[in-house]
């Protein structure tokens, strides 16, 4: 999830001031965490608490209310503030921006014919507590499965270029996203959107065209649009493929508030213990 957090932070200053270039200072002085980070942390805590629907709702409301000005969509903001636990049929990209912990939560196993059930179960659940529209759920499923897919390929020692092409085919076939356009083709007409269906395919393409973690984040931000969310989604997948340079993790941790950092450390310990 640190990949998503870094993407969110680096993109935070470009969400409302889009730049259509890869040439920009990576961690600008005024970079900060936004809703993408807060909700990613909430999903991680929800998973560690058991990964039930109630666990996700409780964690999202807890951290959402702790950071009410992090930049949520209007309807999500109302959901956070209210006592309701009912979803509101959103197709917003919020379900994909927060899902990355799911892709790292279970053991990397991947089979082209039987996609890992637990990844699907948790991804669907983490989305459906608010984003229960089919496109909202699809965005989360595609993102979490892309992470799992790349983790599995890296674990197997597979060639990166080959793995990426297989990922492209898998995502296109299973989710119907068009991944045939290059970033240069997407960039000129790409505008701000909060939909999953106009964010997730672009974020995956930003990863597919990347050479390393930093390059992936730069690709995502160079598209413009909802920069922090695009970069958060790309960042989660790029982390699975390349890992994250330790200086970036250190830098991101200094930009996190204490309660969020505490969850991150708990998460890191949790995964370390699992992988022992
Ligand atoms: Mg944001």
Question: What percent of residues are in strands?
Answer: under 5%
Number of strand segments: 0
What is the CATH topology classification name? Answer: ADP-ribosylglycohydrolase fold
**How many domains, in number, for the residues?**
1
What binds here, in terms of ligands, is:
magnesium ion
| The top level CATH class name | Mainly Alpha
Q: What structural category characterises the helix and strand content?
A: mainly alpha
The averaged pLDDT comes out at 95
Kindly, what is the distance between the CA atoms of the first and last residues, rounded to a whole number of angstroms? 19 Å
Encode the helix/strand succession as letters.
Answer: HHHHHHHHHHHHHHH
Report what the structure shows.
The chain has helices spanning 2-11, 35-48, 53-66, 74-81, 94-97, 100-105, 117-128, 134-155, 160-175, 183-186, 200-208, 213-222, 227-242, 246-254, 258-274. The protein is mainly α. The protein has a single domain (2-13, 31-264), classed as ADP-ribosylation/Crystallin J1 (ADP-ribosylglycohydrolase fold, Orthogonal Bundle), CATH 1.10.4080.10. α1 (2-11) packs antiparallel against α2, α2 (35-48) runs antiparallel to α3 and α2 (35-48) crosses α15 (258-274). The protein is globular and about 45 Å long. The mean pLDDT is 95. The structure holds magnesium ion. Magnesium ion binds at residues 34-36, 71, 228-229.
Short description:
Helices cover 62% and strands 0% of the residues. It has helices spanning 2-11, 35-48, 53-66, 74-81, 94-97, 100-105, 117-128, 134-155, 160-175, 183-186, 200-208, 213-222, 227-242, 246-254, 258-274.
């Amino acid at each position: 999830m640190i990949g998503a957090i870094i993407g969110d932070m680096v993109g935070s200053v470009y969400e409302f001031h889009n730049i259509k270039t890869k040439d920009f200072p990576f961690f600008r002085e005024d970079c900060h965490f936004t809703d993408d980070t807060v909700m990613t942390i909430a999903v991680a805590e929800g998973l560690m608490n058991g990964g039930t629907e109630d666990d996700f709702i409780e964690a999202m409301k807890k951290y959402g209310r702790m950071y009410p000005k992090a930049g949520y969509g209007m309807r999500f903001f109302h959901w956070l503030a209210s006592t309701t636990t009912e979803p509101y049929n959103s197709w917003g990209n919020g379900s994909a921006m927060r899902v990355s912990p799911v892709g790292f939560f279970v053991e990397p196993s991947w089979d082209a014919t039987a996609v890992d059930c637990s990844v699907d179960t948790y991804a669907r659940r983490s989305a459906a507590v608010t984003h229960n529209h089919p496109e909202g759920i699809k965005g989360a499923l595609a993102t979490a499965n892309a992470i799992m897919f790349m983790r599995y390929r890296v674990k197997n020692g597979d060639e990166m270029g080959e793995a990426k092409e297989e990922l492209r085919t898998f995502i296109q076939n299973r989710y119907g996203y068009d991944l045939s356009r290059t970033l240069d083709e997407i960039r000129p007409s790409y505008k701000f959107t909060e939909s999953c269906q106009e964010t997730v395919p672009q974020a995956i393409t930003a990863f597919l065209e990347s050479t390393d973690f930093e390059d992936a984040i730069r690709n995502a931000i160079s598209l413009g649009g909802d920069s922090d969310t695009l970069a958060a989604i790309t960042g989660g997948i790029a982390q699975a493929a390349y890992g994250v340079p330790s200086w970036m993790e250190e830098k991101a941790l200094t930009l996190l508030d204490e309660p969020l950092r505490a969850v991150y450390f708990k998460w890191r310990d949790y995964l370390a213990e699992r992988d022992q």
